[in-house]
Prior knowledge:
Elements: H1 7-40, H2 48-64, H3 71-90, H4 94-111
Helix pairs in contact: 1-2, 1-4, 2-3, 3-4
InterPro entries: Sig_transdc_His_kin_Hpt_dom
Protein name: HPt (Histidine-containing phosphotransfer) domain-containing protein
Pfam family, one: Hpt
Amino acid sequence: MTMPDDPAFRARLAALSEKFAATVPGTLERITQALAVCKASGADLPPDAHLYQLHELLHGVAGSAGTFGFVMFGQQARRIEHMVRGVLTDHTGWPAVIPEVEKLLIWASRDAQATTYA
Length: 118
């Protein structure tokens, strides 16, 4: 993304990025809780309502993280969001989603603004 040369614009974007960074721990906690609810359902496939909640949280990160300098966080959230959407559509593949969400949570809790995902 090319940024305008306007210093005021850059300052506003930096301030918004700081605000976004402050929301990351709460977002990670909400994703953790949504995953826990899905896992606690006791079924091979969580109810759609639980999956939708997880999907929406990941969708929110995917849609906004990159704008505020959390590009990899947004990309990985988008990838996992698509996995969850596939589970909702095909009613299969849930077991593969769990470790992917867990990996995202661990990675993002270390540094959600990192440029490499490992």
